[in-house]
Amino acid sequence: MWAVETIELTKEYPVGFWRRRSKLALDRLSFTVDGREIFGLLGPNGAGKTTTLKLLLRLVFPTSGSGRILGRPLSDVRVHARIGYLPENPSFYDHLTAEELVNYAGWLFGLPGAECRRRSRRLLEQVGLAESAGVAVRKFSKGMTQRLGIAQALVNDPDVIFLDEPMSGLDPLGRRQVRDLILSLRQEGKTVFFSTHILSDAEMLCDRVAILDRGRLQGLGSLREILSLSVSSTELVLEEPDGDVLDALAPFTAATVRTGDRVRLELVSDADVNAVLEAALAAGARIVSLNPVKTSLEDFFLARVAGSTGRERGASTPAADLERIPEARSKRP
Amino acid sequence: MSRVAAIAVHAFKESVREKVLYNLVFFALLMIGAGILVSSVSIGINQILLVNLGLSAISVFGLLIAVFIGISLVWKEIERRTIYNVLSKPVARFEFILGKYLGLVLTLTVNTAIMTVGFYLALYYEKGRLGFEDLAPLEAIYFILLQLALVVGVALLLSTISTPVLSAVFTLSLYLIGNLLEDLRGFGEQSANAMLRNLLRGLSYVLPNFGTFSVISQAAHGQLIPGYRLWSNSLYALLYLTVLVSGAVLIFEEREFR
Known about the structure:
A: Alpha-Beta Plaits; elongated; disordered C terminus
């Protein structure tokens, strides 16, 4: 039994004044999520990530296709007793305090009062809001609201947790806390399904990812597979090379980047590494390192997204909206 | 039932934390208090005036409260997207609507009870004692409460398909028309146009008959309501609000939250 399964899930929204036209938000999406894994749904803004989550949570209804959570159809509201959900940019009742809100969530799950209070205290502590338990939600910052959202999503000790952009609005410390929390949830044997457009988060957390663009699935697989897909190029770093060295290596070089005393040469894809090394040593180069550069998640993502729309990498694409984290550009062994 | 109770209690809490409600209840009590002054300067009809003014204040301010909370509570949940947090829990959509409705009725009941206490204090101040004959206003207040339960049902139904302003306009319009249904039917019966006659007769059966709950003047004259009317009006209100809440549930079941 899959934790989450979608079969040809499609969603069209009616648009226009007479609602006669329709906009395709999700196109025949099929994937499965195993239990005890962290699954990331990636895509630029408007890719269909939130629509997928809303379909799974039955906040909107599919135009066609179906889905199952923990073996039960999406229409079976009883399965919600075993799931937790953090919406994108969550909003809560202004008149409640943080503790009252988590208690209310617990009550909706049918938990007894004493158990609600015990769990809400523990969860608020876990997300770093213990000292703000009695503060009205309207006084919370965006980051605090996000963490409160996570606390209320966990009050029923769910088997599957859906998080829509969980890092949104968090400062670096908050992001770290949420990352640690997601990892600890997997350790507890839970399935975490989250959407994000921040690739570094996905790269750090996910066991498997699905990439969406304009409602279509562009890629699906384990992160391990994706990140070790292929060596996209080889990188040679030299210390204080003179002109002769660079001239000798020019036939093998695709790009050169100088950083301080060092020069990083990106070798042409079909370069014979032995021949490059021999040429470099013969020219008197001081070699610092020679590394294969593997495909990063961002490279993979950009290739799929740009490929799906026929746009060039680096051009103004939806992917340009992505938060670019320099460290995620390349993954070295 | 636990989930319905949770939503009802939450809706009640949300309503009672609205400052506007306190203002409305305060003004209602002020009106009742003013009734003492007005009745003290009238000769012979001071008690009739006080009851008339007091019950009218309870009815009018109750109506404002019913419309205000009825149109806003569900709409606010959708507009502020707090509905996501509720419907992602094991809460069926009918439980949400039923819970909201019961919470609204609970709020109205508590508010009406406060105004009723104010009214009877004023009556006691005026008469110096309270007797069996003073039960008549209590019956009228019960009818006002039934009327408000219907009003809040109409407002809830409309708020699932419309904006608060439009819902308020339609609810108040329906309230006014519902108080004039007898006149509407009488007008139709006198019309030579058969189509108009049938249309008005049909409307008088379909639209909520708020006029049947108006017994303020009888109460002011100390006339108790016959038992059969208490039962028939209670049953009518129960049946009608079942239709209203079921309608709201049916609409809500199909609604998407984008």
